[in-house]
Amino acid sequence: MGDLASESERVLVERARSGDRTSMKRIYDCYSKYLAATCSRFLPDRDELRDVLQDSFVKIFSSLDRFEYRGAGSLKAWMRQIAVNESLKFLRNRRRHGTVEYQWELPDVVEDDQEGEMDVGNIPPEVIQAMVKDLPEGYRTVLNLYVFEGWSHRRISAELGITEGTSASQLHRARAILAKKIEQFRNRRNDG
């Protein structure tokens, strides 16, 4: 389902605020795939993704009284921010409880220093998404926050508890790894 028309979106939010389950389901049906895609950029594991998506919708529906409608797209943007925050909260909790090794150090896979924009050309979006999901967690998180969410290194560093320099370094290294993966993909495709 696509985005809701702005007038029906406003009405659905009002109804959902008053506990109307049909309106909540309509909002969920309309935006769940979009929010799942947003969360999947941070959490490639499907079970973790489902948990965070569920937590996101619980937060969304329990916080609707704080949502301020500002026109078409404002609900989607507000919900996206909640999904991003819930994804980051999950990663912080996992890191804090030591259930995963979380390293901000550079692995020895990047040899050449590739900077600038990556030419993804005609590489299918799902291939690029898989490449991003395959990045080490720290690199993937910073890349997603900086590139897709438009966050500054200052905001990323505050949110993740790292320095701005570490954030910038992670972004640089993530881009270098992606550039190398893109080059390898093209070489395999050209050889085949």
Describe it.
This protein is mainly alpha-helical. Helices cover 67% and strands 0% of the residues. The protein has eight helices and no strands. The protein has helices at 6-17, 21-40, 46-62, 74-96, 125-133, 137-148, 153-160, 164-191. Helix 1 crosses helix 2 (21-40) and helix 6 (137-148) crosses helix 8. It is globular, with a radius of gyration of 19 Å.
- Give the low-pLDDT segments: 99-116
Mind describing the biggest β-sheet? none
Number of strands: 0
Radius of gyration: 19 Å
Straight-line distance between termini? 38 Å
Order of helices and strands: HHHHHHHH
Q: What does the overall shape look like? A: globular
How many helices does DSSP assign? Answer: 8
Mean pLDDT, rounded to whole units?
86
Provide tags for this entry.
192 residues; mainly alpha; 8 helices; 67% helix; 0% strand; globular
Please outline what is shown here.
With 192 residues, the protein is mostly helical. The N and C termini lie far apart (38 Å). Helix content is 67%, strand content 0%.
